[in-house]
Amino acid sequence: MTVATALGVPFGTWIGQTLGWRTTFAVVVALGLLTLLGLALLLPQLEAPGAHRLSERLSAITKPQVLTTLSITFLAALSEHTAYSYISAILAETRFAELPVLPLALAFFGVGAVIGNFTAGYGTDRFGNRAVILFSVAIQSLALLALAFVHDKPLPACFVLLVWGIAGWMYLVPIQHRLLNLSKTYGAFTVSLNSSVLYLGIGGGGALGGAFITYFPPDQLGYLSFAIGLLALANALLAFRGGSETSQ
Is 96 helix (H, G, I), strand (E, B) or coil? Predict the structure, then answer.
């Protein structure tokens, strides 16, 4: 998924800018049909898992530490996607050698995503989930703030998106690691809740960013994202208060 993000977002943006946005959707449909064919031919038959009551699936959220950790995912994703949902508007007037910088900037973001995804696991094993979560949320927040200052400068903007991509794809692995430690009995359910919270943050970021640019210029979204990122960082510090074993 990380490599697909690294390749798909700039490639889809380039198609949209050169051949029109309808062509981008047509390519997505074609790739989806190809994927469906591959799944139909290659996906093995698996037995259905046992039935579980809804109360069992949600039992992990009765733990305050689990709820606090899930809130880190929500706020970090909300912070990121408040700006990322409108990155085309933020970089609309920025050009590199007479060409729109957006596809190049998204390519830098994608490369950063691959780096962040690969280093997150190593970092979590080497330094513990606490250090990686705090580091990634803090660096992502600073990168989003920096975007408000360099959005009109092509090379600095690309560098900021590279750093943002690295940090933005680092926090999910250690958060999942922490959730599995906090809820060993229903770990799989807890991780699935984390995915739900992640997409809630992505959708919420799009809505919040859209409301913001109704009244303010898109290039100021970085300030709002930074403020939300500070909330995510504060929640992370709260989650690790006391230095419990599960924070490592």
Answer: strand
Q: Which domain holds residue 122?
A: 60-241
Structure-token pair, residue 37: 């064919």
Structural contact between residues 164 and 147, judged by C-beta atoms closer than 8 angstroms: yes
The domain total for the chain is 1
For residue 165, is it within any domain?
A: yes
Q: Are 169 and 117 in contact (CB under 8 A)?
A: yes
Q: Which bin fits 51, alpha (ψ -120 to 50), beta or left (φ > 0)?
A: beta
Query: Is residue 69 one of the residues assigned to a domain?
Result: yes
Residue 95 phi/psi, 5-degree rounding, is -130, 150
Q: Match 């975007």 to its residue by tokens.
A: 147
172-182 vs 187-215: helix crossing angle, rounded to 10:
140
36 within domain boundaries: no
- Distance CA(245)–CA(27), nearest Å, equals 48
CATH number at 197 reads 1.20.1250.20
Characterise 21 by phi-psi region: left (phi > 0), alpha (psi -120 to 50), beta (else). Answer: alpha
Q: Classify the phi-psi angles of 94: left when phi > 0, otherwise alpha if psi is within -120 to 50, otherwise beta.
A: beta
| 69-115 pLDDT tens trace | 999 999 999 999 999 999 999 999 999 888 889 989 998 998 999 99
What is the reported pTM? 0.84
Distance CA(68)–CA(55), nearest Å, equals: 19
pLDDT in tens, 185-219: 666 788 888 999 999 999 999 999 999 999 999 99
Q: How many residues does the chain have?
A: 248
